[in-house]
Design brief:
By secondary structure, the protein is mainly α. The chain has 15 helices and four strands. The chain is globular, with a radius of gyration of 27 Å.
């Protein structure tokens, strides 16, 4: 054997002068292996297409069953619920800082972009009103009636639609004139989507603007957001007992949006409602302030580290979501962007 050169081909060792039978065997094994790989890829695409169909029909249980059945199988969904997470214990603010996390910049979002747009619109309305008064000679009585009409419309929106019309107008203007705001919302929702999938919660749908939500949901008081297949969580809540694993998942999902903004921009603007909802959940479960702080700090650390580790996947996912890709297509992008060894 020492004097013979060896050639390795698809797992079969051949001498430099192989016989025809050996070549035939080798070629056959090569064809079989390629065919298997091809079937595996098609299989995952077929599963995700079926998941999209079930989600469209509103059959969350069937969609989740499909995902779980393909979970961890060769060529299946290897990333679903497979994220490596930090040990759960009480973390101090100093430990968060050691990991490059300033909690106050992450957990105290102020939407300065929309706030600035709203103030500018108010100033423009006042200036426009004064200009119209001078140009058309509008009487004080007419100004009173116009103001009264606007006040009535504002009250009607607040009472009947929960401020939905005003939010729709403001959000639409924000997406139209501020590319920064538009990008921030997309990245925020991509963070929710990615973290949810990695910790084992199936995203059901997403919207990236109030107008998008109006078209898809038919509701005025729904803003940009990501919905999840959460019937298991609701069943636990209704039973009055939420498991630690379930709480951990949803805590991370709730903080994924603000964590994404923090990592990209250095601070969070959106996501105040996410934090409030998590706070209400923890209070509803009877958490003391110390226990709630511990839960939030662990969730922040775990979520930020997940997002840092899979930054490339989040960026590709955000691009897909900006184009309105289906949930199944977005999941496929995650699966293709993350190596199992990096989970």
């Amino acid at each position: 054997m020492g004097g013979l050169s060896l050639m390795h081909y698809v797992g079969v060792a051949l001498t430099s002068r192989p016989c025809p039978q050996q070549l035939k065997l080798c070629s056959y094994e090569f064809r079989v292996r390629v065919q298997c790989c091809s079937n595996v890829g098609v299989c995952r695409q077929q599963v995700l297409e079926q998941v999209d169909k079930e989600l469209t029909k509103g059959d969350d249980r069937a969609a989740l069953a499909l995902v779980k059945d393909s979970q961890g199988k060769p060529g299946g969904l290897s990333c679903f619920g497979a994220a490596r997470q930090v040990p759960q214990r009480l973390y101090t603010l100093d430990e968060l800082k050691l990991n490059g996390i300033e909690a106050i910049s992450l957990l105290s979002p102020v939407d300065t972009t929309l706030g600035s747009i709203e103030r500018n619109l108010q100033i423009a309305a006042i200036v426009g009103g004064l200009a119209a008064w001078n140009a058309f000679g509008i009487s004080p009585q007419q100004i009173f009636y116009i103001s009264l009409g606007l006040l009535f419309l504002w009250t009607l929106d607040a009472v009947s639609f929960g401020g939905g019309i005003g939010s729709l107008v403001l959000d639409t203007i924000g997406h139209s004139i501020s590319q920064k705001y538009h990008n921030r919302v997309i990245q925020h929702e991509a963070g929710h989507f990615l973290v949810a999938y990695l910790v084992g919660i199936l995203p059901k749908s997403y919207t990236i603007s109030s107008l998008d939500a109006l078209k898809k949901e038919g509701s005025l008081n729904v803003q940009a957001g990501t919905a999840f297949v959460d019937f298991e969580f609701l069943e636990e809540v209704n039973a009055g007992k939420v498991s630690a694993a379930t709480l951990n998942r949803f805590s991370c999902i709730a903080l994924a949006g603000v964590s994404t903004e923090y990592l990209i921009y250095g601070f969070a603007e959106g996501g105040l409602n996410d934090i409030k909802q998590l706070d209400l959940l923890l209070k509803g479960l009877g958490f003391t302030q110390k226990k709630a702080d511990s839960q939030v700090r662990w969730s922040v650390l775990n979520t930020v580290l997940l997002l840092r580790r899979h930054e490339a996947a989040r960026a590709k996912l955000a691009e897909a979501m900006s184009m309105g890709n289906s949930v199944g297509s977005c999941i496929d992008i995650i699966e293709n962007s993350i190596d199992v060894s990096d989970l």
